[in-house]
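Example 3.2
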Amino acid sequence: MSETVETADPPANELPLSAVLLDIADHGEPRISVAELMQKFGGRAIGALLFIFGLACTLPLPPGATTIFGFPLLLLAPQLIIGAGAPWLPERVKSRTISTADLKSGLPKVIPWLQKVEAVSKPRLVLLFGRTGERLIGLVCTVLAFVLILPIPLGNILPALAVAVLSFSLIQRDGLIAIFGYALAITSASVLVLAAHIIVRTFQHMWTVITPA
């Protein structure tokens, strides 16, 4: 007589990020709190939350929405710098809820791409994720989070994407993805500096035109 052996579901830390996100999308309740998200991501919660909020800032959102998503990033990223093992967020933030319907409509657009990257991703160049490496990722994401809370029209996409890529590299321990994330961060900084320079020069030119010599 054969016995049926029941196997427990693997913990969240062992599941691909895409699988955890699909589980979240299948959440039975109409809304899910940030605290519940933290619990589902387990020991990867800091990186996973950075990924989610960073990715959210790349979406076409109404004015001011990136400030709302950028605030949690500004709280989470410095925790990588100090080496926090688990994320800390104020109760007011943890009690905030996200519509499950919104997740179900948005995640299917992201999951296929995420699964493709996960299929080829593996731990490599792991020296980039030592204590110093994690602090550097935290520092870069903190600077980018400051940019994201600013109301810059169309200026948040590259910084937000850089945060998402760097946090995903941290979850996967994939140095190649981290290098791509750093390249995005440098590119976004360069674009913003160039845009600021053009704006300043434009105003200077306008001032010289309207001001009598």
